[in-house]
From TrEMBL:
SUPFAM superfamilies: Cytokine. This is Interleukin-18. It is found in: Cytoplasm; Secreted. The gene is Il18. The keyword Secreted applies. GO terms for cellular component: cytoplasm; extracellular space. One of its GO terms (molecular function) is cytokine activity. CDD domains: beta-trefoil_IL18. Its main location: cytoplasm. Keywords: Cytokine, Cytoplasm, Secreted. Forms a ternary complex with ligand-binding receptor subunit IL18R1 and signaling receptor subunit IL18RAP at the plasma membrane. Mature IL18 first binds to IL18R1 forming a low affinity binary complex, which then interacts with IL18RAP to form a high affinity ternary complex that signals inside the cell. Interacts with cargo receptor TMED10; the interaction mediates the translocation from the cytoplasm into the ERGIC (endoplasmic reticulum-Golgi intermediate compartment) and thereby secretion. It comes from Sylvia atricapilla.
Length: 191
């Protein structure tokens, strides 16, 4: 015969504890971010250089790479994980991960000696997370007139953007607060 379902079973809802232990229910509109889609892209700076991640050297820098040299497992091809948002004005919440060899690394920010440092850590990007997280960046158009260039604002510290900094022969990926008065090309990215 048919199994009778009790009312208790029907009413059970998956519940998660969010930030500050506030309850939220899966499937309901919430400030939590749910992964919507993943784009596979290279990231370029204004010099058309490609962002390359080298976890063994703890380094991410923009380098001259020809289209022929782009390899998906050499730390050049990024997965840009886009999350649904209830506040589109802030920009599209994205997280970055990259394949190096047979391992996956995700990008996050950490405060070190009073400075924000970008790190790549081994592991996968979560499917859901609170609205703010040290791996979430808001993707915005660089200027209102160009839809091709973007800037990525760090979700936990507004006004801080992914950028590059010239250090010797390197153009290292950093987080910086650009000055409001001038256009800062170092935070301009193409994907």
């Amino acid at each position: 015969g048919r199994v009778k379902m009790s009312v208790e079973e029907i009413l059970m809802c998956p519940v998660k504890l969010g930030k500050n232990f506030c309850l939220y229910f899966d499937g309901l509109e919430c400030d939590a971010l749910c992964k919507e889609k993943t784009l596979h892209r290279v990231l370029r700076n204004v010099n058309s250089q490609l962002l390359v991640v080298r976890p063994d050297l703890n380094l991410a820098a923009f380098e001259n790479v020809t289209d022929q040299e782009i390899k998906s497992d050499k730390g050049m091809l990024f997965s840009i994980h886009c999350y649904k948002t209830t506040t589109p004005l802030a920009g599209l919440p994205v997280a970055f991960s990259v394949q190096v060899g047979d391992k996956s690394y995700y990008m996050c920010c950490e405060r070190e000696c009073g400075e924000m440092i970008i790190r790549f850590k081994e592991g996968e990007v979560p499917k859901e997370m609170p609205g703010e997280s040290n791996i979430i960046f808001f993707k915005k158009t660089f200027t209102s007139c160009s839809s091709k260039a973007f800037k990525f604002e760090y979700s936990m510290e507004r006004g801080m953007f992914l950028a590059f900094e010239v250090e010797g022969s390197l153009r290292k990926l950093i987080l910086k607060k650009p000055s409001k008065d001038e256009v800062d090309e170092t935070i301009k990215m193409f994907i």
